[in-house]
Amino acid sequence: MKKLLAILLAMAMLLGASCAFAETINPDDIEDNMTSTDGKFELAFVTDVGQLKDKSFNQGTWNGVKAYAAANSMSYKYYQPANGDQATDDDRYDAMKAAADGGARVVVAAGFLQASALTKAAVDYPDCKFVFIDGWTLTDADGKALPNVTAIAFQEEQCGYFAGYAVVKNGLTKLGFCGGGGGTNPACCRYGYGFVQGANAAAAELGVQVEMNYSWLYGASYSNSPELQTMANGWYENGTEAIFACGGSMFASITAAAAENDTFVIGVDTDQSFESETVITSAMKGIGEAAQWAITHFYAGTWDEIGGTTVNLGVNDGAVGLPTDTWSLQNFTVDQYNTVLDAVKAGTLVVESDYTVMPTEYSNLKLNIVE
Predict the structure, then answer these.
(1) Which uninterrupted H or E stretch holds 314?
(2) Which domains are present in the chain?
(3) 25 or 7, higher pLDDT
(4) Are the beta carbons of 257 and 236 closer than 8 angstroms?
């Protein structure tokens, strides 16, 4: 999918913004740290838990922010809340306060854990605009939507479905899912539920049975760890052919295990095929592009169109999907992918999103919950 967010890009062009929309800049060529001549930084990013360079959610969002800044000769800076994966709401607020006090006109905050801190920061800094990635509409003490916050959510269940469907159609029947956040992250939960649905649907069409290990172990901090790598190694050694690595830097542990066993990994959030030869495909959402879309609204003078609202992006927005140009699928074609993609777009195939009622039994899939 060469243009993951074609519709969003078109929207940005329609805005007629004076600032460039940075769709052609390679973010790896842009420094993460820059020096501002006046000590102020116009665009800011506040990270979620985990590492900035997690090759996934944080890095993908940050790439969008700094690419936009670089394309438009703006100063930019990232802020990581203190105490790492033990960060509190106060730690997150302090990072946002530092960004606003440091001159930020737009602050992009990634991750659902930012909600409480972001609400306080938005009230304290009404002239600053905030973009809440993987979020929802935030309100003040009177229940009114905060006009200086826009939230962007994604229908992760859809691209999770495509990933599960594709790898089973490709011939894999023993799968794994390792999720971040300990099962509390709505985005990861939607990814996982969609993955299960897609794998089961493909298995039913092929008349085969699929087995899937499904776990939130060792993923609470979204970090790589020896324990996670050991678990993934055990799965691979016992026949698992591909694991959906859904949780930031967890990716490093699972790709290490896959490399040792000559097996596969399914990436998440961004096209992770460039990070490891073990990646067979990735369940992607346009996090960096969405951040740029919101920033573009501010500089186009159209923030009022999105402030105080939530936009929920899916296949009909071109915002989720698989990377057809780089996947390593041998027995699943782009035409087959487009068929299922079009069915979701048309509404003839509905991927369930309410993971709180996720079944444990399926027609063609045995789900092994690993706790």
Answers:
(1) none
(2) 6-154+286-317 (3.40.50.2300), 156-284+333-370 (3.40.50.2300)
(3) 25
(4) yes
In the predicted model, is pLDDT for residue 131 greater than 70? yes
Structure tokens of 310? 């939530």
Q: Tens of pLDDT along 20-78?
A: 444 466 788 899 898 888 989 999 999 988 788 877 788 989 999 999 999 999 999 99
Angle at 61 between CA 161 and CA 232, to 5 degrees: 50
Mean pLDDT for 191-208 is: 98
Question: Regarding predicted confidence, which is higher, 17 or 59?
Answer: 59
Would you call 298 helix, strand, or coil by DSSP?
helix
Write the CB contacts of 37 (distance below 8 Å, at least 6 apart in sequence). none
How far is Cα 212 from Cα 200, in angstroms, rounded to an integer?
Answer: 10
Q: Are 286 and 272 in contact (CB under 8 A)?
A: no
For residue 206, give the 3-state DSSP assignment. helix
307-320 burial, b for 16+ CB within 10 Å, e for fewer? bbebbebbbebbbb
Among residues 108, 98, 148, 144, which one has the least CA distance to residue 128?
Answer: 148
Indicate the average pLDDT of the chain.
91
Please provide residue 195's backbone torsions phi and psi, each rounded to the nearest 5 degrees: -60, -45
Give the C-alpha separation, 83 to 340, whole Å.
43
pLDDT value, residue 58? 87
Residues in a beta bridge with 154:
313
- DSSP-assigned states of every residue in 28-88: GGS-SS---TTS--SEEEE--SS-TT-SSHHHHHHHHHHHHHHHTT--EEEE--TTGGG--
Residue 222 falls in which region: left (phi positive, over 0), alpha (psi -120 to 50) or beta: left
For the ranges 10-19, 287-296, 298-307, which has the lowest average pLDDT? 10-19
- How far apart CA 129 and CA 65 sit, in angstroms, is 14
Q: What is the reported pTM?
A: 0.86
Q: Which structure tokens are listed for 213?
A: 């290990």
Look-up: residue for tokens 């909600």?
A: 115
| Interaxial angle between packed helices 226-237 and 250-261, expressed in degrees from 0 to 180 and rounded to the nearest 10 | 40
